[in-house]
Specification:
24% of the residues lie in helices and 33% in strands. With 425 residues, it is of the alpha/beta class. It has three domains: 1-63, OB fold (Dihydrolipoamide Acetyltransferase, E2P) (Beta Barrel); 66-120 and 259-425, Vaccinia Virus protein VP39 (Rossmann fold, 3-Layer(aba) Sandwich), CATH 3.40.50.150; 126-241, OB fold (Dihydrolipoamide Acetyltransferase, E2P) (Beta Barrel), CATH 2.40.50.1070.
């Protein structure tokens, strides 16, 4: 490994600041650096025309580093990448990174709209935790499988931090819960906390201790799941969430938007966009969860089709839409759900999808296009993946990509791509 010094002049989408190694004649991507930094660095990986590096020392900090780190674990924990940037500086860096990604992928920057870029702490209502060797809660460290133990997380709501403290206190008294337990997902709303426990294999006699600890933690409800997402058992009550005037009740194992305030802004944006287009008809919601976004779009839909391969989410969706007979539930993988819709000759006016961080495969885009919706709303927590997917929609063109700051203090944003047919019939 070699050491050198560089001024960071640009930012890439992700965790890298960009500079130029004049000696090697190559661009250098420096982990966690931001434009304006002068750093000494160590090369960790070398490619034909590119160097990857880590910071040894910040010689001259960027003017963007304009606040004290919001967390004592900043720089070690792999979660937050912009911990010493103010909300205004974060906005500047995020915008530049996305514009650069557009240029790299030859996408018109004028199609990018930044809708909501506020940056508050204490916004996350759900988070996954791993364990230190001693059983305390923590997050994966940057570029490592090692776990950084924590006593609190400033981007999480107070209820999650309460669970962190209680969990660590129990471990301090009684030791780790189980070596079969690999991670937990903690969710907190205004009406209580819940946990989904992930085990490597189905429990044999360990459920009794889990139930005892769950009650010690003061949980509203908890779900025990194995790594193949098979539910072993559910206990106590569902969690309750009020967002944007909508009431939701859901199990801790169901997917819920991490930042409900911004998620409501996204739902309102889509609703207004549909209104402006004067559309009405059937709505298909892929990767629908318990129907968070669809709940805000009922007024525009004659019938709603929710496609989600999760027992708990589909169960919860039936509760959300309990009084609505015009909702169909397809508890299927998205590929099978799309095939079922095609066989039923469903041609929706609006199709919405909110897949996991990794973009869907080409076959999904082709199946979506075959349904011939009048507009597609592609919601993604990975704007880079969405931008790379633009050309996958056959016979559709990009109308706009709208960026929402769903995840302050990280490089992540939520993006909503709006696609319309290339040719009107």
């Amino acid at each position: 490994m070699t050491k050198s010094q560089v001024e960071i002049t640009d930012i890439s989408y992700g965790i890298y600041g960009v500079g130029m190694d004049e000696t090697a004649g190559k661009k250098v991507l420096v982990e966690l650096a931001v434009p304006g930094d002068v750093v000494s660095y160590t090369v960790s990986k070398e490619k034909k025309d590119l160097l990857y590096a880590t910071i040894d020392k910040i010689i001259t900090p960027s003017p963007l580093r304009d606040t004290r780190p919001h967390c004592p674990h900043f720089g070690k924990c792999g979660g937050c990448t912009f911990g010493d940037l103010s909300p205004i500086s974060q906005e500047q860096v995020k915008k530049q990174a996305i514009y650069n990604e557009c240029e790299r992928l030859n996408i018109d920057k004028d199609k990018i709209n930044f809708q909501s870029m506020s940056g508050e702490l204490g916004y996350r209502i759900t988070s996954r935790f791993h364990f230190t060797k001693d059983g305390y809660l923590g997050f994966s460290m940057l570029r490592s499988n090692a776990i950084q133990g924590i006593s609190e997380c400033p981007v999480c709501v107070p209820g999650i931090n309460r669970i962190i403290r209680r969990w660590n206190s129990i471990v301090n008294r009684s030791g780790p819960l189980s070596d079969k337990l690999k991670e937990i997902k903690v969710t907190s709303t205004e009406h209580g906390e819940g946990i989904e426990y992930f085990f490597d294999s189905i429990l044999s006699g360990g459920a009794k201790r889990i139930n005892k600890i769950s009650r010690q933690l003061g949980l509203t409800g908890w779900v025990i799941t194995d790594r193949q997402r098979r539910t072993i058992s559910m206990h106590e009550k569902k969690l309750e969430l009020n967002a944007g005037g909508q009431d939701f009740r859901f199990y801790p194992s169901s997917f819920v938007q991490a930042n409900p305030k911004i998620a409501v802004e996204i739902a309102e944006f889509i609703s207004e966009n549909i209104r402006q287009k004067e559309l009405s008809g059937d709505l298909v919601d892929l990767y629908s969860g318990f129907g968070f976004f669809a709940a805000f779009l009922r007024e525009h839909a004659r019938r709603i089709y929710l496609v989600e391969n999760s027992y708990s989410s589909t169960n919860d969706a039936r509760g959300v839409f309990a009084d609505d007979i015009n909702v169909s539930y397809l508890d299927l993988p998205v590929e099978e759900g799309l095939l079922t819709l095609k066989k039923r000759k469903i041609s929706p006016t609006v199709l919405m999808l909110d897949p996991p961080r990794k973009s869907p495969g080409k076959e999904i885009f082709g199946a979506i296009a075959s349904l011939k919706p009048e507009v597609i709303y592609f919601i993604s927590c990975n704007p880079s993946a969405l931008l790379r997917s633009v050309k996958q929609f056959k016979n559709y063109k990009l109308e706009s990509i709208n960026i929402f700051n769903m995840f302050p203090y990280t490089y992540h944003s939520e993006a909503v791509g709006v696609f319309i047919p290339k040719f009107s019939e």
